[in-house]
Amino acid sequence: MNIKFCGATRTVTGSCYLLTLDNGFKILLECGLYQGHEELTEDFNNHWKFDPTQINLLIVSHSHIDHIGRIPKLVKDGFEGNIICTHATHDLAAIMLLDSATIQERDAQWANEKNLRKKNGKINEPLYTVEDARNCMSQFVGYNYNRWNKIAPGVEVYFTDAGHILGSATVTLKIRKSDNDFLYLGFTGDVGRNSRPILKDPVQMPQVDYLISESTYGGQIHDEFPGDINHFMQIVHETCVNKRGKLIIPAFSVGRTQEIVYMLDHLQNKGKLGKIKVYVDSPLAVNATDIFTVHHECFDREIIEYMTHDPDPFGFNGLKYIRSVEESKKLNDSNEPCIIISASGMANAGRVRHHIYNNIENSDNTILFVGYCAEGTLGAYLREYPTTVRIFGKELKVKADIEIMDGLSGHADEPELVKFISSQDKNILKKIFLVHGELDRQTLLLEALKKQGYTNIEIPHFGQIFNID
User: Fold this and answer.
1) Low-confidence ranges of the chain (pLDDT < 50)
2) Residue 152: which H helix or E strand, with range?
3) Residue 73 vs residues 20, 53, 226, 394: alpha-carbon distances, Å
4) Distance CA 74, CA 69 (A)
């Protein structure tokens, strides 16, 4: 059998890995959307490194768009098999893919209107439509954590909690080989952090023969959570109290937004937030938060105990969830000091681009990044502290403060990743494949793993195939 690396190779987006068994059965791990460089995005997202009609099964680790965002196109292009995931991922995928489809349609419409004005006659089609997103949901099948489940003849899957976002899982496959022996293949998905709010800590995977591991933060060490709160409060106080400005936080609608709101809920209950108004300006985040409230099986002990005296950890006086475009626009016209949490986390799409556009030239304001931004996105550009930035075709001066708090990231840092992988017996594990990371990060993680005694480590190229046995 073999593995073909069809995405998130030497970059952090577009996860996609094709496993072909000895009998020709084809399993796709992840089907993510490429986000970042515009010149690369269209080519990657529109073309496959395989024939979708020949894929028998799809397994996804969690519901972030860089891991599931091309599923509607996969189905539209002929994939008819089951889509295997956890129950919470199933629920979140429904809203995530509908939101992504809406963006695809809107972007195509905007491009066509622009072409019409230029009279060039080019017609842009969305990658997929809202109808396509609805259609693919009938193929999703949800499973519990910590159970071996038969998903195909000779193939079983075991999900363990990855602690990254609600429903996130590491994936272990038990595959019967042609000689009737078994091969165990592991995929980390995105590994979360220990002792973070809301979610349980990552659970160690079963022993495997081959491991595909993320490497997002190779070579980096995050802040610990108490430091996060102190730093966060300093930013809030300086922006909203001292300067009477707006604190704009680009945040993923699933995971990061809920974690920030939960942190603010703590601060409000302790009387530390004061009268500062907080707005969550993302319809997707509103829907995702509703899903959070029905999946307590993913919550850690801390939030369960917290909910005994505060039944709504994602709501407090002064917090408002915004759905309508009209209310979102009003935030840009308002001069009140406030906190605006808005998607997307990489600032490459969504309402947060408008908030940045309208507020970046005001030195009273702050833009706070709380998670990874892929190369080529607006977020990645602003994290380099430029003096000017081009948004919606207009060159703007960057006068607002730019702050970064990667300690709030949902990704494990290097020591946490090394510890997670180190549960695998070096005498049994035959090879580690590093994916979902920029090459410099992957190289640093590779060296850290070598120091732990792991020697057979690969950093695959896009389209590269490896035989496994």
Assistant:
1) none
2) strand 148-152
3) 21, 12, 42, 33
4) 10
d(CA 67, CA 433): 17
User: Cα separations (Å) of 306 from 200, 233, 464?
Assistant: 14, 21, 48
The DSSP secondary-structure symbol of 74 reads H
CA distance 450 to 456: 9
C-alpha–C-alpha distance, residues 138 and 140, integer Å: 6
Residues forming CATH 3.40.50.10890 domain(s) in the chain: 225-408
With contact defined as beta carbons under 8 Å apart, do 92 and 167 qualify? yes
**Whole-angstrom distance, CA of residue 139 vs CA of residue 75:** 9
3-class secondary structure, 125: coil
Nearest to 309 by CA among 259, 269, 275: 269
What pLDDT does residue 174 have? 98
The conformation of residue 237, written as its DSSP 8-state character, comes to I
Distance CA 146, CA 257 (A): 27
DSSP 138: G
Q: Which CATH superfamily is domain 2-220+410-467 in?
A: Ribonuclease Z/Hydroxyacylglutathione hydrolase-like (3.60.15.10)
* Structural element, H or E, at residue 3: strand 2-7
Nearest to 416 by CA among 176, 223, 255: 223
Please choose, from the candidates 66, 102, 58, the residue with its C-alpha nearest in 3D space to the C-alpha of residue 83. Answer: 58
DSSP notation for 399-413 = -SEEEE-GGG-SS--
Q: How far apart are CA 151 and CA 57, in angstroms?
A: 9
Q: How far apart are CA 74 and CA 288, in angstroms?
A: 24
pTM to 2 decimals?
0.89
User: Which CATH code of 3.40.50.880, 3.40.50.1110, 3.40.50.10890, 1.10.520.10 fits the domain covering 225-408?
Assistant: 3.40.50.10890
E strands, 225-348, are: 246-250, 277-281, 319-322, 338-342
Question: Boundaries of CATH 3.60.15.10 in the chain?
Answer: 2-220+410-467
Q: Is 282 within 8 Å of 341 (Cβ atoms)?
A: yes
DSSP at 296: G
Whose CA is closest to 279, among 228, 352, 229?
352
Sequence-ordered list of residues with C-beta below 8 angstroms from that of 329, at least 6 positions apart, any chain: 354
Helices (H) and strands (E) in the chain — how many of each? 14, 22
For the chain, how big is the Rg over CA atoms in Å?
22
Question: Helix, strand, coil % (nearest 5) of the chain?
Answer: 35, 20, 45
